[in-house]
Amino acid sequence: MCGRYTLRARLNQLLQLYRVNSSLNWEPRYNIAPSQQVMAIRNQPDGRNREAVLLRWGLIPPWADDPRIGYKMINARAETIAEKPSFKHALKRRRCLIITDGYYEWRKEGTTKQPYFIHMSDESLFVFAGLWEHWKKEDPPIDSCTIITTSPNELMAPLHNRMPVILPPDSAETWLDPDIEGPELLTTLLQPYPEDTLEAYPVSTLVNSPKHESSDCVEPLDD
User: Fold this and answer.
1) What are the residue boundaries of the structural domains of the chain, listed by start?
2) Catalytic residue from among 27, 51, 83, 105
3) In tens digits, what is the pLDDT along the chain, a chain of 223 residues?
4) Where do the DSSP E strands lie in the chain?
């Protein structure tokens, strides 16, 4: 699964890299948790332009009566999103990229769980494959999202049996292409990311609580 991640870049870096305009406010984040606002790129209603938006992490399907269902939908399994009622409409029409520069996973070690920080070896930004939905049964409406997960690569397998879908640039372009709606091509993009450009190291259990929001969360754990 993917239950915590980071986005330490400044807003101007994000907008320049992804060539979008936005008036959003964004400060570096070290411990983004479910139900919080996340930075995403999605198509505008015209389908031809893109925008940077803040989405609530935890997808709320349009048919849901209670927005708390989003707490159960922070992740969507790549293997079943084309069939699941909660996700199949979003797969066709409402795909997004969730921007990050690292994420956390917990490995069970005896009776405890040790958090690890996973990031690109060159510290670059990357994107998760995501889906979003618009829920309007209350005022104000809520735009929410989920992060898609897949089977782990060799780096992640010792840590967890799932990993978030990381999209390389070409796949990210295809993922956002509004002319593609069929699940056959889209689901082929949702593969484990090659482990040779990723690194993982243990970090402090400070990250276990979303109350902790500082660079200490990503510091390597002393031997």
Assistant:
1) 5-105+123-152+163-194
2) 105
3) 799 999 998 777 777 777 776 778 788 999 999 999 999 999 988 777 888 899 999 999 999 999 999 999 999 999 999 999 999 999 999 999 999 999 999 999 888 999 999 999 999 999 999 999 999 998 999 999 999 999 999 999 999 999 999 999 999 999 999 999 889 999 999 999 999 999 999 999 999 999 999 999 999 997 5
4) 5-7, 29-32, 37-43, 50-57, 75-77, 95-100, 102-109, 112-120, 126-135, 142-150, 163-164, 166-167, 198-202
105: annotated active-site residue: yes
- Is CATH 3.90.1680.10 the right assignment for the domain spanning 5-105+123-152+163-194? yes
Q: Is 51 a catalytic residue?
A: no
Annotated catalytic residue: which of 2, 96, 145, 217?
Answer: 2
Q: Is the pTM of this model over 0.85?
A: yes
